[in-house]
Specification:
The complex is a heterodimer of chains A (541) and B (472).
Chain A (H helix, E strand, L loop, with lengths): L8 H20 L2 H31 L8 E8 L4 E7 L1 H19 L9 H19 L3 H10 L1 H11 L4 H34 L12 H7 L4 H18 L9 H7 L2 H26 L1 H27 L4 H22 L2 H32 L10 H4 L1 H14 L6 H14 L3 H26 L16 H19 L2 H17 L5 H14 L6 H10 L2
Antiparallel strand pairs in A: 1-2
Helix pairs in contact in A: 1-2, 1-4, 2-3, 2-4, 3-4, 3-11, 3-14, 3-20, 4-5, 4-6, 4-11, 5-7, 6-7, 6-11, 7-9, 7-10, 9-11, 9-12, 10-11, 10-13, 11-13, 11-14, 11-20, 12-13, 12-18, 13-14, 13-17, 13-18, 14-16, 14-17, 14-19, 14-20, 16-18, 16-19, 17-19, 20-21
Chain B lengths: L1 H4 L2 H15 L7 H21 L15 H20 L1 H6 L5 H20 L3 H19 L6 H32 L14 H18 L7 H8 L2 H26 L5 H23 L4 H22 L4 H28 L6 H4 L2 H4 L1 H15 L5 H16 L3 H18 L1 H8 L13 H19 L2 H15 L2
The chains are: A mainly alpha (541), B mainly alpha (472).
């Protein structure tokens, strides 16, 4: 269904506009006076974006078509076949909502880097705009543009307000990502050119064709081409996600970045990589995915265990969070590799849940680190008495990170494990070790910081969280619990979209699969796969 | 009559420049001299717009068609932009020979126009020499500065050397074909003499373009010359030299032979790789930009090689050339606005605090050179050129090019990082940007973004130009 108004572009343009407005006071360098005003401004812009997105999704949802998909296409560079085309389906909706919520949370969070003012909000809004663009783009070149742009505000915030070794961390992050993505750029060009030569009969004189649905429907890539191109795409996304051997940039980046930026990066940037694999790699290179799936599953499972083991020995809170991210995202990778509907749906759900939980953890620990003036476990301890509110929320999110039932992570990990078991029993079993280790390091970290002997820290302020921060954390916690208790709503919107992505990999063409899918979903009245009922039973305990 | 009108813009510039020599002290004041120079360039631009196309073969050695007209406009507009933007920098750099400065700049531009308009090898050589001789002197414009004199001397010696190669190539061509005209080779068989002639001309022009391994003058000259001269030179010389290269390739050696394509392939790869690797090690911003210009010339060559001088590849290359010109003018002009001796990374350190406007502009330009999105022209240009390589099946070249552009990010980011994320060195206050420079830089930045976001109009013009060069 095509919606004319308000178009999807507004979702991207609104934060961009907000960011540009904030640039003014940034350059005027009236830092102290403009900070508050800019915060209110960006809060309202970010909230408005969220509302707009929800409204568009509601509009699309109301249509009789089961597939929630709102699209928008405009000419951009027609002679090259590049179109400004955006699409919102269940998959994008999950990630765009996550983006809006996390951005809103980070903007609303009262603590920001000490010297930052309007610029902080400007960069956050820029980041939000670019990440939203990446999640909505359905033209490969448009996607690539957003994929590159979203790096810049994060790098700038890291380099401006980060820790002592921020420049090295930023450079490392940049090089990892850019080296990964230029090969993808080349692969995109190749695919576009190849697609056009096959489409030439019924298309214009354009040199390329970059629209993802058109490309997928043509099935024009030979197996050998799929291997090379798929690898180029996968490496780019694996750096961003990160998948284990390519995670080298991550610990330093999370440690050196300001806490808000770390929360933003951990919650959102990595998800673009995962989203890219599901959206682009799986349908475009089905044969490649078949070959790569065992390796990917192995990397995912190894990531789960390796991340957990390295996290256990970290002395710095932020390093622990960084490696725990590697571990949790390993589950998502495992689910994507299994490529069953349940596993991929679970992976998406787990990604969203991880985004919420990890953003909250980075924010709370960030506040504690700032107030205590130390970030290693040796100098933090006995804080439960000093900052009871933080301790309370930290408990909720730690428990969510461990994937206890009733939290959203539980649903995600459970679905992934259930869905992957049929495909890769050995790797799924291996990943289960990581779940146990996860409980160990998360709870140990909680115990060390909140209980235990109080350390002699030089911190003067023992003041706890402010009212607005409590509101932010409360909202995030409510979302985590809500998704954990009532996952059906989200799952029934994600799973049809996942099904469509998976159907591209089947031997029949695009239209056949979609038709078949529509038929099956009509018989089911509403998408309600069997496992959902099973899940209800567990969640309702 | 037809042939004579094609001289009009060149005559305007070269006769107009003589005014500087005959008036006494009148034109020693910077403002008036600059106004006259800009006025002359504007008149030349207007003339470029109205002179009619040549009908058939021009007997005066010049040819007017869409290609020469468009590139002429690019060269003149680039010259105008750089003269306007660096107007006050010229004085701050301590160039006290204002009359000579503008005389030489206009002469160089008229020489560049001859290179762009030429239709036989004799006028090509005259154009090259006129432009080069003027530039040799311009490089030494900061007469009290040893580095400036050194760069002038180096440029002069190596330039003469390369001119000799070009001349030898032309002589061999004359021997092989019995004519100095570029046009007919369809009837002449490719023999060893023609092959040698090609190689000699290629070496000569590669020197002027600054392609590795003939790039040794580039870093010294770019660094040693006054920044205002570097701004002017980096655009005008690049455009003219590439126009000459295209004319030699497309008109002279119409039917690409395996050896000529192989030679260009090697040149492109060497230029990209050597340029980028050398730029990685620089701490001087001007030197880094000089090596980057070598690498960028390599990317431009990729488009030309890919389609075997086809019009699509040339369009992509021309688009790259135009966007590179805007970017490089912006970079050097902003550097000139920072100060007469802004060169080492330390001097731009903390520029974000000293002048947010300059830092912002420079960031846009450096991101553009790296080919990253906010300054879309760089990315779109890379997209065009790389896609030509891919669609011609030159996968190796495309992969090398794309890896090179990733490598290049490492040094392009160093400058914005130093500007934005480091504190200024001791005793460096805020910078007041002269209004003309601010307007020029803002125009460059806007052009960089707009060309990239809306490439279609420019692309259409360039396609027309490429078609008129390649012929039906």
């Amino acid at each position: 269904m095509v919606i004319g108004w308000p178009p999807l572009s507004f979702v991207i343009l609104l934060p961009l506009l907000g960011a540009l407005v904030c640039l003014g006071p940034w350059f005027a360098r009236e830092r102290d006076t403009s900070g508050r005003l800019c915060r209110m401004w960006s809060l309202s812009i970010s909230g408005l974006t969220l509302a707009l997105l929800v409204a568009i999704a509601q509009g699309g949802m109301g249509a009789p078509d089961v597939l929630l998909s709102v699209t928008e296409t405009r000419e951009w560079i027609p002679s090259l076949g590049i179109y400004w085309s955006l699409a919102l389906d269940g998959l994008s909706l999950a990630f765009t909502l996550l983006t809006c919520v996390v951005s809103l949370a980070v903007i609303a969070w009262s603590a920001k880097p000490a010297q930052a003012g309007a610029g902080w909000y400007s960069l956050l809004l820029l980041g939000q705009s670019a990440v939203l663009g990446a999640f909505l783009a359905s033209d490969l070149v448009v996607f690539y543009c957003f994929y590159e742009v979203m790096l810049l505000p994060v790098l700038a915030a890291m380099a401006l307000w980060g820790g002592a070794r921020r420049l090295q961390a930023a450079l490392q992050f940049l090089l990892y990502t850019v080296v990964g993505s230029v090969l993808m750029f080349l692969a995109i060009l190749f695919i576009g050119w190849k697609g056009q030569t096959l489409l030439a009969s019924h298309a214009t004189e354009a040199l390329f064709a970059f629209d993802i649905t058109t490309l997928v429907s043509t099935k024009m890539l030979s197996v050998e081409q799929q291997m090379w191109l798929g690898l180029a795409f996968l490496v780019a996304f694996a750096v961003k996600t990160p998948i284990v051997p390519l995670h080298g940039w991550l610990p330093a980046a999370y440690r050196e970045a300001p806490h808000g930026t770390a929360a933003f990066t951990a919650a959102l940037l990595g998800k673009v990589g995962l989203y890219g694999i599901i959206r682009f790699v799986m349908p475009l290179f089905p044969d490649f995915m078949q070959v790569a799936a065992p390796a990917l599953a192995a990397l995912g499972a190894v990531g789960v265990v390796y991340g957990a083991m390295v996290a256990m020995v970290q002395r710095d809170v932020r390093s622990l969070l960084a490696y725990s991210s590697v571990s949790h995202l390993g589950f998502c990778v495992l689910g994507v590799a299994a490529a069953t509907e349940m596993a991929v749906t679970g992976a998406v759900f787990q990604a969203v849940s991880h985004g919420l939980v990890t953003a909250a953890l980075f924010l709370v620990f960030g506040a504690i680190i700032d107030r205590q003036g130390a970030s290693d476990f040796d100098s933090l301890g006995g804080l439960a008495a000093k900052v009871p509110v933080s301790a309370f929320f930290l408990m909720i999110f730690s428990v969510a990170a461990v994937a206890l039932p009733l939290t959203s992570s539980f649903v995600g990990e459970f679905l992934v494990i259930l869905g992957s078991w049929a495909e890769f029993p050995q790797w799924t079993a291996f990943a289960l070790i990581g779940v146990v280790l996860g409980a160990v390091y998360t709870l140990t970290a909680y115990l060390k910081t909140m209980f235990g002997p109080a350390r002699d820290s030089s911190a003067t302020g023992t003041n706890d969280l402010k009212g607005s921060d409590v509101l932010v954390l409360g909202a995030l916690a409510a979302l985590v619990l809500l998704l954990g208790v009532f996952p059906q709503g989200a799952l029934s919107s994600i799973s049809p979209a996942v099904q469509v992505q998976l159907s591209y990999a089947d031997s029949q063409g695009d239209e056949g699969a979609k038709a078949q899918y529509r038929q099956s979903s009509e018989t089911q009245a509403l998408v309600q796969p069997a496992y959902l009922a099973q899940n209800d039973a567990q969640a309702g305990r | 009559m037809n042939g004579v009108t094609s001289f009009a813009p060149i005559l305007t510039l070269s006769l107009g420049s003589l005014v500087y020599l005959v008036t006494g002290k009148l034109l020693e004041r910077g403002k008036l001299a600059a106004m006259l120079a800009c006025g002359l360039v504007v008149i030349a631009l207007a003339m470029l717009g109205i002179i009619p196309d040549s009908i058939g073969e021009s007997e005066y050695g010049l040819i007017v068609n869409d290609f020469s007209r468009l590139l002429g406009v690019v060269a003149c507009a680039g010259a105008l932009l750089s003269l306007v933007t660096t107007r006050s920098a010229v004085e701050r750099e301590g160039i006290d020979t204002i009359r000579e400065y503008y005389f030489l700049a206009l002469t160089a531009l008229s020489g560049a126009l001859v290179m762009i308009f030429c239709s036989d090898f004799l006028s090509l050589f005259i154009g090259v020499e006129v432009a080069s001789l003027a530039l040799y002197c311009l490089c030494g414009a900061r007469v009290h500065e040893p580095a400036s004199a050194e760069s002038s001397m180096k440029y002069f010696l190596l330039g003469c050397f390369s001119s000799a190669f070009l001349l030898l190539g032309i002589a061999l061509w004359y021997g092989a074909t019995g004519s100095l005209s570029m046009v007919p080779l369809s009837t002449v068989p490719y023999n060893s003499m023609v092959f040698l002639s090609f190689l000699m001309m290629l070496v000569g022009i590669a020197f002027k373009v600054g392609l590795a391994p003939f790039h040794f003058w580039v870093p010294d000259v770019y660094q040693g010359s006054p920044t205002s001269v570097t701004t002017f030179m980096s655009c005008v010389v690049k455009v003219a030299a590439f126009a000459a290269l295209l004319k030699i390739l497309v008109l002279g050696f119409t039917y690409p032979q395996p050896w000529s394509l192989a030679a260009l392939w090697v040149l492109a790869v060497l230029a990209m790789t050597v340029g980028n690797l050398a730029a990685l090690q620089q701490r001087s911003v001007k030197r880094m930009l000089a090596y980057s210009s070598v690498a960028q010339a390599g990317y431009i060559l990729v488009g030309i090689v890919s389609t075997e001088y086809g019009s699509d590849g040339i369009t992509a290359s021309l688009y790259y050339l135009v966007s590179y010109c805007v970017l490089t003018i912006g970079c050097f002009a902003a550097l000139a606005a920072v100060g007469p001796d802004a060169d080492d990374l330390r001097t731009v350190q903390g520029l974000g605090k000293r002048s947010p406007f300059l830092a912002c502009c420079l960031t846009v330009f450096f991101l553009g050179l790296a080919g990253l999105p906010p300054s879309m022209a760089g990315l779109t240009a890379k997209l065009f050129v790389f896609s030509e390589a891919l669609s011609s099946g030159l996968y190796g070249l495309a992969i090398l090019a794309v890896l090179n552009s990733a490598l290049a990010c490492a040094y392009y980011f160093r400058v914005p990082a130093a500007m934005l994320f480091q504190a200024p060195a001791e005793g460096q206050g805020r910078i007041a940007v002269p209004p003309l420079a601010a307007i020029g830089l803002a125009a460059c930045a806007a052009a960089v973004v707009l060309f990239g976001v809306f490439p279609e109009p420019l692309l259409g013009l360039l396609q027309g130009a490429a078609d008129s060069l390649v012929g039906p």
